[in-house]
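Moderator note: this is an archived Q&A kept for reference. The question asked for a predicted structure of one protein chain; the sequence and the answer are reproduced below.
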Amino acid sequence: MPEGPLLAANLKWLFTELPFERRFDAAAEAGFAGVEYAAPYPYPAPRLRELLRAAGLRQVLINSPAGEPDAPDRSGLACHPGRTADFRAGIERGLEYATGLGAGLLHVLAGIVPPGVSTERAFATYVANLAWAADRAHGTGVRLVIEAQNERDAPGYLLRTQARATAVVEAVGTDRFGLLLDLYHAQVTEGDLVRTVRACLPYALHLQIADPPDRTEPGTGEVRWPRVFDALREGGYAGWLGCEYRPAHGTRAGLGWVAEVTA
């Protein structure tokens, strides 16, 4: 990271005082080079592509489709036995959007372990589905990533620790999969963030940041961000930082941390 990281505004979380379509220009005006957001699917891909072009932004990451907020599949289907056809259809749709938007990364959601299904069975289903998804994505120009999520924010989510996530990446194949290292989830679950960064960077294709305990911008919570950013530089991370946080006092007012990480 000798020239500083590339910053992507998560448009689900930032500039929420504006309608979604106006957030693209707001992100560009604030100095972001790229954007990410979980669900492009309510919008036609050509419309999103035009918003990106007009703002001069790059689409960095989208998620695979998920269900409604209160539905059992709200966090994805990859670990749901008996829903393989639905999972595969979701991956097809995700790849269609990712290629259409020029997004290089598709986050494949693990999902919440369904009631009555053992963790072991859910995990076996998950790995088999990931292997299929990796084969399907081959040659598309889109790389797949997986993310561990903490139990507090995502109760029942299958993939909880960075060690488990990196083991999955190794099992499926680092040539086909990578890690979405979310530093907020990692800190909430495991702490010891600098060591986690050092261990996980070889697997990481994308990073996301937020400061616990309230998932606000860096510098407003418990993490010593200068030391974390130093660890990223020392590790040679040259990818994107997705700003997936809830601004404490407005998006623009909370961007003071950017000068520190890009220095």
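Archived answer notes: The radius of gyration is 17 Å.
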